[in-house]
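fold description:
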Amino acid sequence: MEEKFPRGLWVRLIIYVAVGHLFSAFVYLLFTLGGQSQ
């Protein structure tokens, strides 16, 4: 079985997904806390 993607691409993809999730969670937290304070 041949690998379709090189290893570096998988590492980069995982990093992008992790950073994207962290960023969206941070934005969601800001909106949630901001909504509660009003």
User: Anything to note?
Assistant: The chain has one helix and no strands. The mean pLDDT is 90. The two ends are 57 Å apart (CA to CA). The CA atoms of residues 9 and 29 lie 30 Å apart.
